């Protein structure tokens, strides 16, 4: 009889596998792999009535992917309100890290990119109405942590 109490930890998806799956689902994204850091830049459009966005995704093993919008530049709300669900540097907040909604066993092409399109859909709706319809809970950052991978690659 097999003891089901002990389980081997699941391995993170390798950077190479992440690249292959991203190429399959988003063949037009440009990719750069340097020192175990992958950067993808590509265009997505959250809805046929909404504009197209140029996004940048940075990923490194054992770090969470970081997503930013390169073009067009994100802007404050109707009355100058800060952009909801963003981190410093206008990185997108796509999920709550402590709730483990994303893990290193997930493909970025199947999670992060679709979540980015959904975030952009809610962003454009917020721009038009002043109301964020995406729900969610924005986590509080620990300012004592080391500088972000994102900031080091600017």
Looking at this protein, list some descriptive labels.
alpha+beta, Ubiquitin Conjugating Enzyme, four-stranded antiparallel sheet, 3 helices, 21% helix
Please explain how this structure is put together:
This protein is of the alpha+beta class and 154 residues long. The chain has a domain at 15-73 and 85-131: Roll (Ubiquitin Conjugating Enzyme). It is 21% helix and 20% strand. It contains three helices and six strands, in the order αββββββαα. The strands form two sheets. Strands 1-2-3-4 form a four-stranded antiparallel beta sheet. β3 (53-60) and β4 form a beta hairpin. The relative contact order is 0.18.
**In whole angstroms, how far apart are the ends?**
54 Å
Order of helices and strands: HEEEEEEHH
State the CATH class of the domain at 15-73 and 85-131.
Alpha Beta
Molecular shape: globular
Individual helix count: 3
The total beta strand count reads 6
| CATH fold title of the domain at 15-73 and 85-131 | Ubiquitin Conjugating Enzyme
Task: Characterize the biggest β-sheet.
Answer: 4 strands, antiparallel
- Counting copies of identical and different chains, the oligomeric state is single chain
Q: What does the average pLDDT come to?
A: 82
**In CATH terms, what is the architecture of the domain at 15-73 and 85-131?**
Roll
* Order of adjacent strands in the largest pleated sheet: 1-2-3-4
């Amino acid at each position: 009889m097999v003891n089901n109490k002990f389980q081997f930890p699941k391995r993170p998806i390798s950077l190479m596998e992440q690249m292959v799956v991203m190429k399959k689902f988003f063949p037009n994204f440009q990719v750069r792999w340097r020192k175990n850091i992958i950067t993808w830049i590509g265009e997505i459009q959250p809805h046929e009535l909404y504009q197209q966005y140029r996004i940048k995704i940075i990923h490194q093993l054992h770090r969470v992917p970081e997503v930013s919008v390169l073009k067009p530049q994100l802007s404050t709300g109707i009355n100058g309100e800060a952009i909801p669900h963003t981190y410093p540097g206008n990185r997108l907040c796509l999920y709550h890290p402590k709730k483990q909604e994303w893990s290193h066993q997930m493909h970025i092409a199947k999670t992060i990119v679709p979540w980015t399109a959904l975030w952009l859909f809610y962003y454009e709706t917020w721009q038009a109405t002043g109301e964020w319809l995406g729900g969610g809970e924005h986590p509080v950052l620990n300012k004592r942590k080391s500088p972000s991978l994102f900031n080091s690659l600017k």
